[in-house]
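Q: Convert this sequence to structure tokens.
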Amino acid sequence: MHDELTSVDIKKMQEEIDYRELELRPKLIEDVQTARAFGDLSENFEYKAAKQAKNKNESRIRYLKRMIASAVVIDAASAVDEAGLFDRVTLFMEDEGEEESFTIVTTLRQNPLKNLISKESPFGQAVLGHRVGDRVFIEVGSGGYWAEIRKIEKGTDDESLDIASY
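A:
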């Protein structure tokens, strides 16, 4: 299995790895050593918390390295008149009678609370490659709903979009 990521995704992951290995790791190791000096490890909450933080950091480093190793780098370019990666798409939801706008992003940068929707989500899959005026069916679970693409605002691979934590 591989993840389709952009070169910016890879760069941002490598920056996080560098920060975690070069800055955060030494601090967390020092925290563990300091907490260990407090005495009885069986009842030492500070030690347990410090070890947990250190282990979480190491786990995140391994996760990011695996993502980079298995990634397939994709190009974010799309035709000028069709929905593509990093484009803001406005849909008219037929059932609700309302318009909603979403930005299509890679899985690594999705954040539904900010209307950043993964290209691999039902919404992303339904909309990618379609044009203004197209009616698309967004499949959700055992059902779904129809929506019409009302507007596509072309976007770029914005480096300010954070990569998701886990």
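The chain has a mean pLDDT of 90.
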